[in-house]
Amino acid sequence: MRKYVFILLIFFSLTSLLIAEPYKPYPILWIHGLGSSPLTWGAKIDTLSNGFKTDSIIGFGDSPTYQYFLNYMLPIVQAWHEYEVSQGLTWTYTTPEMDAYPNKTFLEVINMDDPWGSIDPDAENYPPPYLGQGDELVHRIIEVLEEYYGDDWASDPDAQVILISHSLGGLATREALKERPDLIPHIAKVITANSPHLGSLWATPFYRDLWIMVLGNWHPIILPIEWLLGKAIRKINNIVGGWLGSEGGLFSVEGMIPKIFR
């Protein structure tokens, strides 16, 4: 009798192993920076006829980052696809022979509707329905969690995502988690690359303008344009009696300094 019980236990144990879910890594959400797109990571995305780009990946770009990680994820994706088929489920994970590949491969992207837009709420200028890049990222994080863990992801402590952000994307990530701190338990890890967490001169008024003027004054293309326009302005200035003000360079810092300080 004990022998049969032992055999049955082995049978049910093996059966449970055969139908158990495969290993599920945390999905990675790649977040691009200012004025950029998922091509930062090497992920080409679909484009709708209205010009707004979706988050559907249709191929690879010049950067090898996305494809490098995909090589590691592909065996896991294959296992999950086979599991879905064996359980009679509608398949959602894609493999290379499918038209939808490489979507739902544990590698996701966001393509900001306004890559030059504000990271914090700016409803008057940011494309609706989002309030800013931070708000748009919040919605994208929720989409990824729902896609991989289902509608009840909020009550699932294992439902987590890894965020990898470049440049301004790191600040958008901070803004998203500030707006929705309830998402923090569902963030496995945040990795940022070249994000200006301590601020940037290029985003600081006066300093930004100062450097733009300095660089513009010495640029090999701007310099001859400045010279030609400067001569024209000085000519007009002489005709109108000097009401145009300083004769300093058109783009130069010198030309921006009032005479009282010179």
Report on the structure:
- By secondary structure, the chain is of the alpha/beta class.
- The protein has two domains: 22-199, Rossmann fold; 207-261, no CATH class.
- Helix content is 38%, strand content 13%.
- It has six helices and six strands; from the N terminus they run H-E-E-E-H-E-H-E-H-E-H-H.
- Strands 4-1-5-6 form a four-stranded parallel beta sheet, with helices on both faces. Strands 2-3 form a two-stranded antiparallel sheet.
- A hairpin with a 5-residue loop joins strand 2 and strand 3.
- It is elongated.
What is the element layout, followed by pairings?
Elements: H1 2-19, E1 28-31, E2 43-47, E3 53-60, H2 65-86, E4 107-110, H3 133-149, E5 161-166, H4 168-179, E6 187-193, H5 207-218, H6 222-239
Parallel strand pairs: 1-4, 1-5, 5-6
Antiparallel strand pairs: 2-3
Helix pairs in contact: 3-4
